[in-house]
Amino acid sequence: MQQLLRYLYLSLVFVLFSVFTYAQQCPLPNRITPAGPVSLFVCNGGSITITANEGLNNPDLKYKWKISGRDAAPGDTNQTFTVTQAFIEAQQGRIADIYYEVTSRSGSCPGGANTSKPVTVSRRTADLVAPQFTITTASPQCSGVPMNFRVNGTEDPNLDYIWDFGDGTTAEGFTVAHPFIYLGAGSKQFNVTVVAATPGAGCRSAASAPQSVTIDGGPVFTPADVIDSANFEICIPEDSSVNVRAKLFNNISAANAANITQYIVRWTPDGTPESYDPSLFTAQNFIRNTIPFDTTGTFPISITAVTAACSTTVTKLYQIATKPVAGMEIVKKERAEPPAANPLDPAPCVPVNVTVSDTTEARGGKITRKWAVLNNQGQPATGFIYIDNTTDTSATPVYQFTAQGRFQIQLIVENRCGRDTTSQSVLIAFPEVQLSGIGPVCGDTTIAFTAQNVNYDANLGTEVAGSFQWVVSGTSGATYVEGTSATSKYPVIRFPNIGDYQVSVSFANECGRSNDPSIAQQGDPSQTVITINQIPNPPTIAVAGLAICAGETATITPTGPAGNTFNYYTVATGGTPVATAATYTTGKLTLPTTFYVTTLSPNGCESTGPRTRFDVNVFPAIENNTISQDQEVCQGSAPVLLSGTQPTGDDNSTGYRYTWQFSQAGLNGTYNTAPGVSNGRDYTPPVLQSNAWFRRLVISASCEPDTSNVVAITVSPRVAGGTISGEQQVCVNEPVLPLTGSALPTGIIQWRSSTSSANAGFGPATNRNDEENYEPGVLSQTTWFRRYVLSAGGGCVDSSNVVQVTVTQPVTNNTILADQSLCGGERPAPLTGSTPQGGTQPLQFIWESSTTGPTSGFTAATGTNNTANYNPPAITITTWFRRGVLSGGCDTNYSNAVQITVLPAITANTISGTEPAVCENTAPQTLNGSAPAGGNGTYTYLWESSITSATAAFAPAAGTNNTQNYTPPVITRTTWFRRTVISDNCSSVSETVQIDVTPLPTAPVVQAANVSTCTDSTATLVATGPGGTYQWFETATGGNILFEGATFVTSRLRQTTTYYVQTVNQNQCVSPTRTPVTVNIVSITADAGRDTTIIEGNTMELIARGGVRYQWEPAAGLNDPNVQRPVARPAKTTTYKVTAYSEEGCSATDEVTITVIPRVIIVNTFSPNHDGINETWEIQQIENYPQATVEIFNRWGTKVFTSDTGYKKAWDGTYNGQDLPLATYYYIIRLDNISKPISGNVTLVR
């Protein structure tokens, strides 16, 4: 019995795991291998096998291969599909969109089939042709110099080109470059070939004809010849600066060094090459880099040995390193699927795969690494393996942990300069919680624990509902509030008392609890201490406030419990303290300010309640104390009133008091009370004989007096202006004769001028204006002048008389009209001129002409040339004209020059067409016109047409008729065209071009307007008519020609398609319409009905739909395989396939599966007499009927037994727990809801 129970348990686990496994595959996997490049190829005589879900062996998956929506091969449901050359040939040489559909046999993945991505397979109809190539670099070349190779012709994007250079190396590409290496005397030849190959499956051509290249040998100079005193590896102590110079020796043999003329060394890839004489680089003489290496790393040093012919370059890696800094990062952690070798293991917690990345800071030099895993006690751990082809030396190892617990992943890195170790904890399967530190806090506090301060990590698992457990210890009194409890995920806890509370939290996932002792660690992040501190009392201040003058400071001195300090605010609530100290001295204040003070305990708690207030009243500073203004006065004169502004500020409780002061010793001299009335807001100075400075003091309340600005009164000696002369009249822009002035004994001279009048508008004159006489220079308008004399201090001034210089204005508005062009021998139109302005009236005119140009060669014009306008005579060459205006004795003013252009005759006006005739209702092609010559070089065009003749009835042509070329519209009869070219006043008419019209052919007649064919079959379409060529299209208008000819065989069709045919006659005229032919696709879908289960020996009627006739297979077990509704009596579970045919002979297939289950075997006697034999009434095979029920009746019809569904517990001959007597009983067995019940009798024997 124990073995039976174990068997049943394992079976149940297997079923549950199978369901889990299949559920994990939803959506169903749909990989296809190979996925191709653009196209997969089958070479001649070969094949290619395509695999669905390669590497996955799942009996629940059912495959169906398809090609463009149809079955690839009837009944082909294997996981692989092989495409052969013959199969592709049957598909017209190419299989597009080959894919498969995958479904679940058990139905564990709802939603139907999943479809893979398609691939394309093509057959190579011929062997690949061996490519040929060209060497594009001249031969011979020196060793190490790249040579270029290119395949001849055009590159095929579906092919790879593989090169063999004959030196043991290969390369791919349509064009390649390759350096050949040969060291030694003379030269060496290498044979080069190339082959073409397809990607993916890889058809391959024969090799090309080989071509040889000749390589001249370079000097025998090898990396082994170059040595370094430190063997090219330098270790730098940690935290030391890098300053390293290499020390290189050269061990080249004398024979190999004989022809070397120099060595060129590049110490860094981007450094400047340095040249060394061979004598300086030997086994005894070393070379060093001029600029030291200043950082760690690997530096490639290239050294080139140069001869008169070729050179050889070697590269040595110079490594500068320091001790590495180990670093690592866990980049991925995920649960692995249960191993396929142990499908009965349902545990979801392990294995867990952990991917770790080495983030070591190498700090130069080559490093080695070694990974290790330690248990929670720091000892080497078990319960893990390396997977995915990684080891304990991989850069990114992948661990598979098969045991739960806390592990330390350790990394040891080492280079020749030292080693470093780092480690990181990883928790497998168990959950983890991190509780952020809170506080300390002050006084009775309620803390809401949220996702911001509590982080629950289910560690790839699922939180177990109700598993949260909070523990608070230490200081008493903590309570859970707001409806939360110790089992809440995010509780709200009140901490009412002063002291330390220890708070911890744990929870569980399906693998264990976060506080499991086996994963304990120091500094447990699931625990924290919350400290509740005492809140201090508010401070007291002996004096509630004080008053100060603006700009002074105030000191606040609070008192309170010893050891505390104080916060000072400028707001009653909120805000940020302006200071934290025992006492606080403010900055200089300018406004009344209130401060608020709180007590701050040593542990950071601040007193609560109203803050203690301290008021500072500030008397505002006196402002707006200014006086005006500086003055200059003549000696013996009284200055004007000095005015002062009305002051503001201070408390002004006693009013403002004024004191005016003055100094005669300078701005910064000694100031005394000013003479006269000096205590008013304003002040009137007395008559002054010398310079003086004044200021005002303003006093208010008890604050310091405020001093105004200082004004200066400058006293100057008196002066006399004298006289000037030199009135004159000049033309505009002519120089003015100097103005002379009388001699002056003293004073500063300034000549002033005005363009307004003799009495106003004077300002400083231009040019040099501070001498006794004055030269005005060139003037543009009438100007008045006088001379001013100022005292040395500027306080006294006198002026001379005024003289006038009259300026005659230039003539303006002298313009004439207009440029003209005309053919030779014509008379120009009259030239008109504007009415001139300015000058001296009356004005005089003179017209001039030139045949040279607009700026030279002018002489008096012929005819009447002294009037405002001018009539030119007839001219034969291009001529320019201008008008001169004379005013007084000033220069003649000339107008603009107008040009009268004499144009040459128009030539080269020809037109041509490309077709003498067009089809009816067809527009002719463009008529081309030559580029004309002559005229003014700018041309306009007019195209004309006539339907009468080549010489009469021409009218402007339709459409765009004003361009050099002309595209006619559709014409219906013979038409003549010509072009007129116009340039200015000249014109020319071309010869004519005639275009005739050819009638259109009639549309063709088709043999049948509607044709039917099967899906994926061709159709034959036939056209007839009056003759000509027939062209077939897919569109009613436009489109590409599919076929030319009367009989057209379509491609294979999968949907109804309409084709169109038109007639083309010998003149290439097309019928006005296309005749349509519709190919109707006969669609047929076979339906074999639903899969059914029957009892062994029963029959089942199969019903097919979708066709007019049918064929079933296999025929075994069917009464007639060629009818729609055959009767099946299968001996075992059988899948029948039906092929349905339409009236047109088209076919489709479908399948139906009849599952046969065995009949039940009923015994009619059992003996439940407690001897252990035949104790229950067993019904064999009833386990195949999970819905079966059994009822037992005695001979009086009383029901003595009713089974559970499936008859899992057999009848033991009892009724209501009591043994029934020996008798015959009657049963009714219902196997399901469909089958007829089974009845009979069974005898109970005791």
TrEMBL record:
Gene3D superfamilies: Immunoglobulins (2.60.40.10). Residues 130-184 form the PKD domain. It comes from Adhaeribacter pallidiroseus. This is PKD domain-containing protein. InterPro entries: Ig-like_fold (IPR013783), Ig_7 (IPR044023), PKD/Chitinase_dom (IPR022409), PKD_dom (IPR000601), PKD_dom_sf (IPR035986), T9SS_type_B (IPR026341). Signal peptide: none annotated. It comes from the Bacteria. Transmembrane segments: none annotated. The lineage of its organism: Bacteria, Pseudomonadati, Bacteroidota, Cytophagia, Cytophagales.
